[in-house]
Amino acid sequence: MRTVNASNAVNIADLRRLARARLPRAVFDYIDGGADDEWTLRENSRVFDDVTFRPRNAIATPHCDLKTTVLGTTLELPFLLAPVGSTRLFYPQGEVVSARQAGEAGTCYILSTLSGCRLEDVKAATRGPAWYQLYIVGGRQVAEAGIARARDAGFSALVITIDTPVAGNRERDTRNGTKEIVSRKPLRMLPHLWQFVVRPRWVLGLLADGGVMTFPNVMIPGEGPMPYAEVGTQLQEAMVSWTDFDWIRRVWSGPIVVKGVLRAEDARRAIDAGASAIVVSNHGGRQLDGDPPTLRVLPEILEAVDGRIEVLVDGGIRRGADIVKAIALGARAVLVGRAYAYGLGAGGAAGVGRAIEILRADVIRTLTLLGCASISSLDASYVDAAFR
User: Which residue range forms the structural domain that includes residue 326?
Assistant: First the structure.
């Protein structure tokens, strides 16, 4: 199995290039792509250019403390690994590999319902905290069984994603024949198989890892794990509404995190629904193209929340400086998704570890140059935001 030489990856963009070289096009574009014209995808990253730093110079900062507390748990880093579906396609045992690296780094891993590894195996792999991100695919009975398994396995928070009433229009997937590839019908698959023929090492790794993945955390009664081909249809039938939080709170006694908040009124409704934290998120630009970039709406959400619950943010983060900007603007911590997914696709554990280390080193360097000794000391005085 080809692995990334960590010393060759200077930044997350390097890991992206390595992932692109190793993965079949359909798999890489699943990580890399967004909805429609991908405007929101691009703006999520570009909006960080609208924030400039205001350093305090001539201040010695021999050590920078990166610790933060999220939902009462101390993390060694101010970023968590976001839920990313189907990462077992990026590298064998992808969710287990990523969770283990998160734990080694002292941060939290968030597992997607739509993972290729059993949630019990993922939780056992990490020394750090883990959260379970819930889709109600398969119906309420199936979801409740998944919640029970997550509770018994030791997941400490439940993440409810509220922005997927239907899958976004991801045109790269259409062009790459993703539906045809997962149909398991040879005549439909044949025109698109060249993407895999030119990546034989990836194919051998997939076959050694059990072949085309299913979803072992979505157990359909009388049938077993949900097949990969059914995910699109199931998502359309799995919309989460605010009324669902009533039964979710009855079956899950731990903290609930609401992911996908972009409006002040939704932030307030999340509080009313019993959320302990929210994630300002537009699903990485993969759902509604034209959604605002998350950093731009962060101030509105913070004002609406007014300190009552914790606010996290994701979207477009490629450098440690992006993390520092988001926290200076008021986020408790950030979630990174594509940044570590590129690393996983590039070279498994080595790639994820390198992605984490790149971001960690970037954060330390940025804090030192700002004259700020700790993440907890960051505030709005260290930045100017054009949209604030």
Answer: 6-385
User: SS3 of 130, please?
Assistant: strand
In the three-class reduction of DSSP (H, G, I as helix; E, B as strand; rest coil), residue 11 is classed as: coil
Q: Which two tokens stand for residue 69?
A: 């507390």
**The dihedral formed by the CA atoms of 22, 192, 206 and 115, expressed in degrees to the nearest 10:** 100
pLDDT tens per residue across span 190-244: 999 999 999 999 999 999 999 988 999 999 999 999 988 766 666 777 789 999 9
- What span, in angstroms and rounded, lies between the C-alpha atoms of 77 and 69? 9
292 closest CA partner among 310, 273, 313: 313
- Is residue 49, in this structure, part of any structural domain at all? yes
Residue of 88, 259, 283, 296 marked active site = 283
Is-catalytic flag, 283? yes
Q: How far apart are CA 235 and CA 372, in angstroms?
A: 44
Q: Which helix (H) or strand (E) holds 69?
A: strand 68-70
Q: What is the pTM of this model?
A: 0.96
For the chain, what is the domain count?
1
